[in-house]
């Protein structure tokens, strides 16, 4: 071999070896001392549709006006960690993604169970050359369709006579397209399985075949860490002892448009608001606190499922920080947009700009629900219709009130810490809502105004938006204050 070539190979190996050893303070060598790996500051990826809210301290409560309403918070200084927040309320189109996922997953489960009943073996892979009901059986393939030892183990548990794997842990086949048109069903077994998702004939109107929304239930698990702390649990055992499994019907209650207003002709809103394309960019309503929490769990799952399909870099995490509802204090802090002692998200003290145009969607006068004659909205309006606050957040006042994660208590602020104040979700079934809505008068739009609703109740004037925490010291580009 050429000596020059040998020298180049040796030099290249030496350089690569040096690069491999440049890890940690001790150069990657074990010298009997404990050292951590050196890492640069972590820069989180900004989730789509969210804006960063920096950490800081602020004076919460009513500072400009002397109201005597019970729901107003007393003046108090608190500190809040930074987080990402949806720049708008969750829209109908965004929530429909959640509903469609639940519908699809239930349909695929029904089809897979039918295929298993007929004896189709999931160890044979995905759809492959299978047709009809067989194409929707449980699958065992890993990435790129290749079966891994774990997939084979799951498949064996799913088909074994003893110790069957629970249905919710089996792998559904998401690569096969569903047939929703009854005239395109591939075979009679498919038709029989999928028909169970629809209202039975005796419950239909005008023989219209519609999905039975009572079956659209989403399951998720959460751990009551605050409860574990109160009980003095330590280690990881609390994850089992304080594990809660929730099953929530996800379809919005569209009857709220009729139920919330007696002697009002709101039938068109009941019929069209959630599903019609014309309302896609309007905030979703008729969603309870329980449903909003379920949406947060699904949003985290959807993002994590996507990241799990990507190759993980060494030392990198392929799991996102969970999406959740904001606490009451986080919501007020974000609503202020960096302004201190301001009654409204835009500052104040007026509800109109210098041209006399209203700055939010609310009820300006007794009996007058229209924000501006000929240009306003009698009910909710599309998101981003009005100007954003200093953090880039829209509709933090008016349009729809918003669920927070905090339990409602009149003495909430006196009871809680001044550092990221919060209260456990099981403290009360009454949850705090903030921001006022399209049916409220001006004072309920103030950033300090408080209100509440039962966690299992849905209203035509309550929606929500999500947040995601990020670690202190993260390199984040914040919006410049005007």
UniProtKB/TrEMBL annotation:
The domain of life for this entry's organism is Bacteria
Q: Where is this region: Disordered?
A: 26-48
Question: Which Gene3D superfamilies does the UniProt record give?
Answer: paralog of FGE (formylglycine-generating enzyme)
- Keyword Lipoprotein part of the UniProt annotation: yes
Alphabetical UniProt keywords: Lipoprotein
Q: Name one GO molecular function term.
A: formylglycine-generating oxidase activity
Give all residue intervals belonging to the Sulfatase-modifying factor enzyme-like domain.
48-467
Per its record, how is this protein called by name?
Gliding motility lipoprotein GldK
Encoded by which gene? gldK
């Amino acid at each position: 071999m050429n000596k020059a070539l040998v020298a180049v190979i040796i030099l290249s190996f030496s350089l690569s070896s040096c690069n491999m050893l440049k890890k940690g303070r001790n150069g990657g060598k074990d010298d009997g001392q404990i050292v951590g790996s050196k890492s640069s500051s972590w820069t989180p990826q900004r989730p789509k549709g969210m804006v960063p809210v920096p950490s800081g301290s602020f004076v919460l409560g009513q500072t400009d006006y002397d109201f005597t309403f019970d729901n107003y918070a007393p003046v108090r200084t608190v500190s809040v960690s930074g987080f990402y927040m949806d720049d708008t309320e969750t829209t109908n189109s965004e929530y429909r993604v959640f509903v469609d996922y639940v519908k699809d997953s239930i349909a695929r489960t029904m089809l897979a169970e039918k295929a298993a009943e007929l004896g189709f073996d999931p160890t044979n892979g995905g759809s492959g050359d299978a047709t009809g009901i067989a194409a929707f059986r449980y699958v065992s393939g890993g990435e790129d369709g290749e079966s891994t030892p774990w997939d084979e183990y799951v498949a064996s548990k799913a088909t074994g006579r003893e110790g069957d794997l629970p249905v919710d842990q089996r792998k559904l086949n998401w690569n096969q397209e569903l047939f929703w048109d009854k005239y395109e069903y591939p075979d009679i077994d498919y038709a029989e399985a999928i028909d169970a998702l629809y209202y039975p004939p005796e419950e239909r109107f005008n023989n219209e075949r519609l999905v039975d929304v009572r079956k659209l239930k989403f399951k998720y698990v959460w751990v009551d860490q605050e409860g574990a702390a109160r009980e003095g649990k330590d280690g990881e055992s609390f994850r089992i002892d304080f594990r809660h499994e929730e099953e929530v019907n996800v379809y919005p209650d569209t009857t709220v448009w009729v139920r919330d207003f007696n002697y009002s002709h709101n039938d068109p809103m009941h019929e069209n608001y959630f599903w019609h394309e014309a309302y896609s960019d309007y905030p979703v309503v008729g969603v309870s606190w329980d449903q909003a929490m379920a949406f947060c769990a699904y949003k985290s799952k959807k993002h994590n499922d996507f990241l799990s399909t990507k190759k993980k870099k060494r030392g990198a995490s392929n799991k996102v920080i969970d999406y959740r509802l904001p606490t009451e204090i986080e919501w007020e802090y974000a609503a202020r947009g960096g302004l201190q002692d301001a009654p409204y998200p835009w500052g104040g003290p007026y509800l109109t700009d210098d041209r006399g145009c209203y700055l939010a969607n609310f009820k300006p006068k007794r009996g007058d629900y229209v924000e501006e004659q000929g240009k306003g909205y009698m009910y909710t309006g599309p998101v981003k219709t009005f100007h954003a606050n200093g953090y880039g957040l829209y509709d933090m006042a008016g349009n729809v009130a918003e669920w927070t994660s905090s339990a409602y208590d009149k003495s909430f602020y006196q009871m809680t810490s001044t550092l990221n104040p919060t209260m456990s979700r099981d403290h009360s079934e009454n949850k705090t809502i903030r921001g006022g809505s399209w049916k409220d008068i001006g004072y309920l739009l103030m950033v300090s105004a408080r209100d509440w609703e039962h966690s299992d109740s849905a209203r035509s004037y309550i929606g929500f938006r999500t947040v995601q925490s990020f670690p202190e010291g993260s390199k984040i580009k914040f919006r410049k204050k005007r």
